[in-house]
Model the fold of this input.
Amino acid sequence: MSSPRLRIAVQKSGRLADKSLEFIEAAGLRIVKGANELLYRIENAPIDLLRVRDDDIPTFVGDGVADFGIVGRNVLEERVEGEKPIEVMALGFGRCDLRIAAPKDFMYDGPQSLAGERIATSYPNILRRFLKKNDVKAEIVTMRGAVEVAPRLKLARAICDLVSTGATLETNGLAATETILESEAVLIQCRGPLSPDLRPLADSIIARMRGVSASRGAKYVMMNAPRVRLPEITEILPGAGAPTVTPLAGRDDAVAVHAVCQESVFWETLEKLKSAGASAILVLPIEKMM
Done:
């Protein structure tokens, strides 16, 4: 009898496909790409990667065909059939917003501005819930691509679509207004029980992915600082918890400060630290963190 293998569903193609594989590899899992493009194997763990359409990932995980999946929250929230899989955690990549957008001459003043209008979208279920929540009656026009051209073609007065930079909207004479959903890649899990043999492996993978997600964009900051300015310097450090503070040899009035910053550390931040009396400031990338 063959040993059980953990199954993770990932996007075969599309905006999250390559980034999902990069994230998995960053968690220390070596991917073996075989002749079968629908199934990749992990060399150093009993794990299979099922490569499917993004729309199918919630179904695969929800029905127990896969134990875990990496998918955009927008795709997960659009699912309506059956119980949704468990969202384990956000992964920190693939960020975008599902937003209402309309021609620049459309006077948008809240959801009620959409009453009686036609709205084109590839996410009819999310849009329907938004309209119902705000007690707005409007007609939903479902499209499977190029939603941004709908107003120009007179198919709809407004659209509901994913927005990252807004460049596509601008090209089509549209302006984004209300945000319906903030989306990014998320790890989802089947609600059914895992095999007891796979539970330790699953816990290990989740811990590794949390570490990868936490380390992305995080920086390790080291500096020397006057002891009396420590509260001010701690306040300047972006997204840092309580820093590690150690005495400097031969100095009673100064300390060494080490901190993990969960947010970007800009030059302006360094200038503020310098003004607060910090010196010998070093900012280092973090490869792994648990």
